[in-house]
Amino acid sequence: MSENKQIAGPILAFVGGLVILIYGAVEVYIGEVASSIGNLNGLPVLNIGGVIIGGTLGIVFGLVIMASSVAVPSYPDSNLGLGVLIILFSIFSLVSVGGGSGVGFLLGVLGGTCCIVFGPEEPVRSPPTPPTPSASPPAPKPPAPSPTADPLGRTQHACPRCGKISLIAFTVCPFCGHRF
Prior knowledge:
The chain is mainly alpha-helical. It has two domains: 2-117; 149-180, no CATH class. The protein is 58% helix and 3% strand. The chain has four helices and two strands; from the N terminus they run ααααββ. It has helices spanning 2-41, 48-74, 79-101, 103-117, and strands at residues 156-158, 165-167. It has a two-stranded antiparallel ribbon. α1 (2-41) runs antiparallel to α4, α2 (48-74) packs antiparallel against α3 (79-101) and α3 packs antiparallel against α4 (103-117). It is rod-shaped. The N and C termini lie far apart (88 Å).
């Protein structure tokens, strides 16, 4: 269902832009025909330049709206900017070609609004899963014997003369000086 909502906006905006473009093209054509008839008969033709300029702007505005509506599905993260652009140029078309008799204007504003509102959905994020406990924790490794430890794994020994304890690495008792 959300796919239909996301594509409805660009379709409405595209149709609105097409209506505005057609009205602009018709206005340009009528202006050219009226200009040529007036020139042939020597009649004064009023405001033909304004009609042609308005029609040309209608064509340009319609093309911008259509291009923006085509870009919305291609760039879903830009739906806000493209939707605003569609709405603005639909409003601008009111001045040039009357918004395509109002129909192109309404379709463009509605389509641009749908592009903004029904943008891409945020992906559903699942909560992180806790690590699974293993059957039994690994046994700690026994400490590696130091290179100076004796074969039985002792690290200290008592001096036979004074009885004080010193490290096995000492070959002379640090307390009395007796050699081991």
